[in-house]
Design brief:
Radius of gyration: 22 Å
Distance between the termini: 78 Å
Order of helices and strands: HHEHHHHHEHHHH
Strand order of the largest sheet: 1-2
CATH class: Mainly Alpha
CATH superfamily: Biosynthetic peptidoglycan transglycosylase-like
Shape: globular
Number of strands: 2
Amino acid sequence: MLKRTRKTLGQAALLAAAILCLAAGLFFLTLPSAEPLRIENPRATAVMEMRAEQAEERGQTVRRSQQWVPMARISPWLRRAVVNSEDARFYEHDGFDMVETEAVLELAAERGRLGRGASTITQQLAKNLWLGEERTLWRKLREYFLARRLEDLGKRRVLELYLNVAEWGEGIYGAEAAAWAWFNKPAVELSPEESSVLAAMLPAPRRRNPQHPTARLRKRAFEILELYGIYQQLTPEQLEESRARLADMLGAPMAAAR
């Protein structure tokens, strides 16, 4: 009897292992390849398609403004602002920032709730391109492995893709469209102040409007501007001048810059 039970348990374990291997195989087979993105730009993203569906459901005209530009035609100030504020360890991690994740979890444990996120730019790109805004453990698992695939393209290409598909307002995608929509200039000409404002929009791009700035947008824009000084990308004198220009741009008192 004992021998038969062991045999049955062994067979069950083998079956479970086979099912697990099959599930893992199917999981990886259903993940899209990042290789075409090495030389091709996506015509649309999951977020764009989702926004189009939402507009159609509301009976609205689908609007999309986007113009692809190479990294050389995106202001270095915008590149720095986005990396500084969204993913300071972008050039150090491999798509998943364990250091930042541990910090977020420790803070959540102290406060008893989950606060800020820990998604890297690469993870945000994976979500934007393929996954949309679904919030499930399954989506997060897919995001993790897709981010690893995107990292094989190289940091420069990942950042270039992200800056060209990021949402910067209703129907506005990418740095070039955002620069024209909000500042009436090409992305390559964006100043440190303008770049700080665009970076400040990213957590809530359809609710934060530079033409009608909220207190939260102003506060975040000044915080991002300060990061140029912290990372020694602006001298103290240059930073002071940028604070004044940003205050004038957003109609904010200089005290907000402190």
